[in-house]
């Protein structure tokens, strides 16, 4: 038996990067996984790419196109997952965006975009997953993607930091309010992970004059990481599978740092 066999899971932001890796690690341990993303075409391709592996581990695979800021689309994603797997046990609120700007240049649009996806998207995802779990009467697990930016400020990404502090706060508040329904809420906080998001951030930092050469920010961060290198998505998934598994049943309200010792908070 895999560590999460028979568990029905949704992962948002799963068309690439950390979300894809979370979903694939769950499949390796026998879970049924819905790969959900605003990029439906890519989410569907990821689901297809995992079908053979799922057949080997006894896992199930589906996908959904979803904008996590749209409650109706979130409900439709959950309905599709429940129609496919019969229930919802684990919900990863992982979709996230970043768009660096110098602090004085941050606009309302930039704030609303980042807070919308990372903050409101997390709240809606938690609420709708909880409603489904309460309706089932089964309890469940909600797992939110925070960041090292949940614990301290960083240059040129103020709305992102604010949005990720919000994720920690929603994790703690949700843990309190949902405990009586046998729903746990946890989070994990990666440091610097080599994904397409980070490549885009790197380009944006050059564009706004906050870096002089490509890769500069990542190099500078690397020197602050006790493990001596930035992470790959596979550095994150041991923890995320643990948080989805019965092994973590006594944890709630906690956000686990997975940052190679970049921050000691
Ligand atoms: P990524 O950009 O590679 O992947 C994010 C995915 O989210 C994309 O597939 C994108 O299409 C999807 N997405 C964006 N907006 C969406 C929306 N409104 N609805 C549904 N899906 C949407 O990013 P990643 O590096 O894999 O990051 C995943 C999560 O991890 C994010 O929450 C991010 O903030 C967090 N994180 C990343 C790092 C890092 O260094 N990469 C560090 C800490 C935290």
Task: Write the topology of this structure.
Blueprint: E1 8-12, H1 17-28, E2 32-37, H2 40-49, H3 51-57, E3 61-65, H4 71-85, E4 90-93, H5 108-136, E5 140-145, H6 158-178, E6 183-190, H7 196-207, H8 216-222, H9 237-244, E7 255-258
Parallel strand pairs: 1-2, 1-4, 2-3, 4-5, 5-6, 6-7
Helix pairs in contact: 1-9, 4-5, 5-6
The protein binds nicotinamide-adenine-dinucleotide (NAD).
Nicotinamide-adenine-dinucleotide is lined by residues 12-13, 15-19, 37-39, 66-69, 94-97, 117, 121, 145, 147, 190, 192-193, 195-198.
Relevant terms:
globular; 265 residues; alpha/beta; binds nicotinamide-adenine-dinucleotide
Description:
It is a single chain. The protein is an alpha/beta fold. Helix content is 46%, strand content 14%. The protein has helices at residues 17-28, 40-49, 51-57, 71-85, 108-136, 158-178, 196-207, 216-222, 237-244; strands spanning 8-12, 32-37, 61-65, 90-93, 140-145, 183-190, 255-258. Strands 3-2-1-4-5-6-7 form a 7-stranded parallel β-sheet, sandwiched between helices. Nicotinamide-adenine-dinucleotide is lined by residues 12-13, 15-19, 37-39, 66-69, 94-97, 117, 121, 145, 147, 190, 192-193, 195-198. It comes from Roseibium algicola.
Brief characterization of the structure:
The chain is α/β, with parallel strands linked by helices and about 260 residues long. The chain is about 45% helix and about 15% strand. Helix 1 packs across helix 9, helix 4 runs parallel beside helix 5 and helix 5 packs parallel to helix 6.
């Amino acid at each position: 038996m895999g560590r999460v066999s028979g568990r029905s899971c949704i992962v948002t932001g799963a068309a690439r990067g950390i979300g894809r890796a979370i979903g694939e690690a769950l499949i390796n341990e026998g879970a049924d996984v819905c790969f959900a993303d605003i990029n439906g075409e890519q989410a569907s391709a990821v689901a297809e790419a995992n079908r053979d592996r799922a057949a080997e581990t006894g896992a199930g695979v589906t996908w959904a196109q979803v904008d996590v800021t749209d409650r109706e689309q979130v409900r439709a994603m959950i309905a599709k997952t429940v129609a496919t797997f019969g229930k919802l046990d684990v919900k990863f609120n992982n979709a996230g965006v970043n768009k660096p700007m110098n602090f004085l240049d941050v606009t309302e649009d930039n704030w609303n975009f980042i807070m919308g996806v990372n903050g409101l998207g997390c709240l809606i995802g938690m609420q709708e997953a909880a409603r489904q779990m309460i309706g089932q009467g089964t309890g469940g697990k909600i797992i939110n993607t925070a960041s090292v930016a949940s614990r301290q400020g960083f240059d040129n990404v103020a709305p992102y930091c604010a949005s990720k502090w919000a994720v920690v706060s929603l994790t703690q508040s949700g843990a309190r309010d949902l405990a009586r329904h046998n729903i746990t809420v946890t989070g994990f906080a990666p440091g610097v992970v080599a994904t397409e998001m980070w490549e885009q951030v790197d380009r944006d930092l050059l564009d706004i004059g906050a870096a002089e050469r490509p890769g500069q920010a990542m190099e500078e961060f690397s020197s602050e990481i006790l493990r001596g290198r930035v992470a790959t998505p596979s550095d994150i998934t041991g923890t995320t599978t643990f948080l989805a598994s019965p092994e973590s049943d006594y944890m709630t309200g906690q956000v686990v740092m997975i940052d190679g010792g970049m921050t000691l908070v």
